[in-house]
Amino acid sequence: MASNSKLKSIALLVCDTPMPEVVAEHGEYPTIFYELMRKSLPDELGWEFTMDAYDVVRKMEYPSEEKIDKYDAFMYTGSAASAYADLEWIHRLIEFTAHLAKDHPKVRIFGICFGHQIVSLALGGTCVKNDGKWEIGPTKLRLTNIGESVFGIDNELTIQEMHQDHVPFVPKGFHLLASTEVSINQGMISTYGTDYIYTPTVDSIPISDVHIITVQGHPEFTRQIVSTMTAKRANQGLITDALKEDVDRRNDALGHRVSGDGELVGRVLWKILGV
């Protein structure tokens, strides 16, 4: 690991390819996630980072056992796939996640959307379709006390969303970060020393104690990415025109904050890594 230098190393587990219209304007997930972490890293601190991408879908590739501990964190992208699908690459990803969490505890785990759901399935929770309910576009999350402590803000966090599947409860060993009326588990954290048998009741956690953090939303998505995706899904009949128009209105209200509090989430990830 690179924890004793001004360099951090991230392994990105790429769980999908964005739709072609998004790729044409913004690149594939390695580019999109690299941009999130670059923009979230304050220049004046003098830190640098590397991000190695692993295609866990088509190639089912992972770093060797010897290389895992050279990374400071593993980050999971979103996916159009369902985390509960009976697919070989998903089974392998769940098995790897459980192995990573239990046998390589010094490496942090950052799960985004589909990654949030995979972490749940790997460590005692579940994931299900949310009765056809979509959460799309900038969405206000109600923070728990721990969520306020972790993100350093009061009451609410706004994040871009794009999902129908969700994690319907908080697995043992995790603390809830935020909720909405549609999805109770909008993010969760696990700390070092967790036994996954029970979850202690606490109001705050030192950021350095965080081992795993997940969010149901997409801090890496910008207004432009979400607008492109909603326009296509409306044209395909997957969402209604009324929902698309509502997403557009909420995106307009963000003004210059095109990813909502996405970069704030990125800064929290850097703080967990000691930056």
List the helices and strands and how they pair.
Blueprint: E1 7-14, H1 20-26, H2 29-40, E2 48-55, H3 65-68, E3 73-76, H4 88-103, E4 108-112, H5 114-122, E5 128-129, E6 135-143, H6 145-151, E7 156-163, E8 165-166, E9 175-176, E10 178-179, E11 187-191, E12 210-215, H7 223-235, H8 241-254, H9 262-272
Parallel strand pairs: 1-2, 1-3, 3-4, 4-12
Antiparallel strand pairs: 5-8, 6-7, 6-10, 9-11, 11-12
Can you describe this structure?
This protein has helices spanning 20-26, 29-40, 65-68, 88-103, 114-122, 145-151, 223-235, 241-254, 262-272; strands at 7-14, 48-55, 73-76, 108-112, 128-129, 135-143, 156-163, 165-166, 175-176, 178-179, 187-191, 210-215. The strands form 3 sheets. The protein has a 7-stranded mixed β-sheet. The protein is an alpha/beta fold and 275 residues long. 34% of the residues lie in helices and 22% in strands. Helix 2 packs across helix 9. The model has no long low-confidence stretch (mean pLDDT 95). It has 9 helices and 12 strands.
Question: What are the salient characteristics of this protein?
Answer:
three-stranded antiparallel sheet, 22% strand, single chain, seven-stranded mixed sheet, alpha/beta, 275 residues
| Structural shape | globular
Return residue spans where pLDDT drops below 50 for at least 5 consecutive residues.
none
User: Gap between N and C termini, in Å?
Assistant: 14 Å
Count helical runs: 9
Main pleated-sheet profile:
7 strands, mixed
Largest sheet strand order:
2-1-3-4-12-11-9
Structural class by helix and strand composition:
alpha/beta
Strand percentage: 15-25%
Q: Please tell me the overall pLDDT.
A: 95
Strand tally, please?
A: 12
Percent helix range: 25-40%
Whole-number radius of gyration? 17 Å
- Name the helix and strand elements from N-terminus to C-terminus, one letter apiece: EHHEHEHEHEEHEEEEEEHHH
